[in-house]
């Protein structure tokens, strides 16, 4: 997981759908989850010292960059060796007691509201004959502030408008003109090579096979270059379209949350 990477996916825990977002900044891992239905949010920030101390206590130490990569793989579901779970404090206590060999649920204890409201995102690392649980505590942040949502909506709208303008006009027109110019150049070169090839073929025995083969290879090389440029342009347009769709989905989600 590289610095500046943001990973966001939706997952179900015990039948409830949550949105999970992880972000890695310089020396800081941010984890945020939100209930898709109620919009309740939990958020935690973790520095390298905290993460490495947490992993050391489990008996399976991981360096901060490795842990972040494991978490990214679990969120994006790219590896069967890591998975996620979401627990309350009572669930976490039960898990600890089971690991310690205590049978049954822990005796009821009065918990503070802040502790009861917390959630723990558990990174589960499965190795041969063992499973390691890394709990990340996430304090309850409440529901989104409507004013903050409106501000983010305006920022997203401005960014979406700028992206749409940039994607639909100047870059697209520029790329079209560039490709047309390259196509015209390739056609001219191909025609010139074809004429030269005809002259060699008309010369009969006087034309060397090596020269004809070289001309054919040159034509083929130019055609392949043109195809690569076309594919490059299509990938660029597809990437801009994907960015626009992501921004539009985020905008629609924020508008829906602002109505709650």
UniProtKB/TrEMBL annotation:
Domain of life: Eukaryota
UniProt keywords, alphabetically: Cell projection, Coiled coil, Cytoplasm, Cytoskeleton
GO cellular component, one term: centriolar satellite
Transmembrane segments: none
InterPro entries: CCDC61_N
Location(s) in or outside the cell: Cytoplasm, Cytoskeleton, Cilium basal body; Cytoplasm, Cytoskeleton, Microtubule organizing center, Centrosome, Centriolar satellite
Coiled coil start-end: 176-203
Record bears the keyword Cytoplasm: yes
PANTHER family in the record: CENTROSOMAL PROTEIN CCDC61 (PTHR22691:SF1), YEAST SPT2-RELATED (PTHR22691)
Family: Belongs to the CCDC61 family.
UniProt name for this protein: Centrosomal protein CCDC61
The species this protein was found in: Alosa alosa
């Amino acid at each position: 997981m590289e610095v500046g990477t943001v990973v966001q996916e939706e997952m179900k825990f015990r039948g409830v759908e949550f949105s999970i977002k992880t972000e890695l900044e310089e020396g800081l891992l941010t984890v945020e989850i939100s209930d898709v239905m109620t919009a309740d949010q939990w958020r935690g920030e973790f520095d390298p010292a905290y993460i490495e101390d947490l992993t050391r206590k489990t008996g399976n130490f991981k360096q901060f960059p490795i842990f972040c990569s494991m978490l990214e793989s679990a969120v994006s579901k790219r590896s069967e060796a890591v998975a996620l779970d979401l627990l309350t404090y009572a669930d976490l206590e039960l898990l600890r007691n089971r690991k310690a060999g205590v049978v049954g649920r822990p005796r009821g204890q009065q918990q503070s509201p802040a502790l009861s409201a917390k959630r723990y995102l558990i990174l589960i690392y499965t190795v041969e004959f063992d499973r390691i649980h890394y709990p990340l505590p996430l304090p309850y942040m409440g529901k989104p502030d409507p004013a903050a949502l409106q501000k983010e909506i305006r920022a997203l709208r401005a960014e979406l408008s700028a992206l749409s303008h940039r994607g639909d006009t100047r870059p697209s027109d520029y790329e079209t003109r560039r490709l047309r110019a390259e196509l015209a150049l390739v056609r001219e070169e191909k025609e010139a090579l074809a004429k030269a090839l005809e002259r060699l073929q008309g010369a009969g025995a006087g034309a060397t096979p090596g020269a004809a083969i070289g001309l054919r290879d040159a034509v083929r090389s130019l055609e392949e270059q043109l195809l690569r440029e076309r594919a490059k342009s299509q990938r660029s347009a597809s990437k801009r379209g994907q960015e626009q769709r992501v921004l539009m989905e985020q905008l629609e989600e924020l508008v829906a949350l602002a109505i709650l």
